[in-house]
């Protein structure tokens, strides 16, 4: 067991990451990987990039250390969730065209969820729920197309800024900036409510 509970969610813009992580011509994948290495070395004693592994689902984990982490990227915003739980999931989604993404949304939502959301007609509700489902499958390992395995009991669109439990996981979702939603999925509630940190404000 780790010596303390670790539960921190860090958000950073592409420009902020490029300031703290040296390197030219980094694409999104390189930025995510280097951001992860930087934050994991800052947060976890004994961490080294040589300890990173991927399981059979492609989910990253840290060999021989009792911590888990997960990454997400949307437009110019990057997120890393680092916890002392066995696994975790984080996802960021921006609001997009409902018409363009209708087939994908229908595939991920259950019939009940899709019907409620379609009746409400709010694109933000669709993509916030999409981010919750992404966090779910990223926590457990798998594809977003398993999103239909997880159905919210509360009405879609009513789960902002509060924890709720479903399928033995705890979920949290919030709008981190206009029309950009971030969601978490973890096996237990964190001890601290102050887990959201911004690289530009909190890092020293």
UniProtKB/TrEMBL annotation:
Presence of the UniProt keyword Transferase in the record: yes
Pfam families membership: ACPS
SUPFAM superfamilies, A to Z: 4'-phosphopantetheinyl transferase
GO CC field: cytosol
InterPro entries: 4-PPantetheinyl_Trfase_dom, 4-PPantetheinyl_Trfase_dom_sf, P-Pant_transferase_sf
One of the GO BP terms on file: lysine biosynthetic process via aminoadipic acid
GO molecular function: holo-[acyl-carrier-protein] synthase activity; magnesium ion binding
Record's keyword annotation contains Transferase: yes
Domain 4'-phosphopantetheinyl transferase per the UniProt entry, residue ranges: 88-177
Keywords: Transferase
Similarity section: Belongs to the P-Pant transferase superfamily. Gsp/Sfp/HetI/AcpT family.
Protein name: Phosphopantetheinyl transferase
């Amino acid at each position: 067991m780790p010596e303390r509970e670790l539960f921190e969610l860090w958000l950073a813009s592409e420009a902020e990451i490029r300031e703290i992580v040296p390197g030219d011509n980094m694409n999104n994948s390189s930025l995510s990987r280097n951001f992860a290495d930087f934050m994991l070395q800052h947060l976890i004693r004994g961490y080294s990039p040589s300890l990173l592994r991927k399981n059979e689902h492609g989910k990253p984990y840290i060999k021989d250390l009792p911590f888990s982490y997960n990454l997400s990227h949307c437009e110019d915003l990057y997120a890393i969730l680092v916890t002392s739980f066995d696994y975790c999931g984080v996802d960021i989604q921006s609001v997009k065209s409902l018409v363009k993404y209708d087939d994908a949304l229908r595939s991920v939502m259950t019939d009940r969820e899709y019907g409620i959301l379609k009746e409400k007609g709010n694109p933000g509700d669709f993509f916030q729920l999409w981010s919750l489902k992404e966090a779910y499958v990223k926590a457990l390992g798998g594809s977003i197309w398993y999103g239909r395995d997880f159905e919210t009991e509360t009405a879609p669109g009513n789960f902002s800024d509060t924890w709720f439990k479903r399928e033995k996981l705890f979920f949290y979702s919030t709008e981190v900036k206009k029309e950009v939603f971030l969601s978490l999925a973890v096996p237990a509630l964190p001890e601290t409510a102050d887990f959201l940190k911004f690289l530009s404000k909190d890092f020293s």
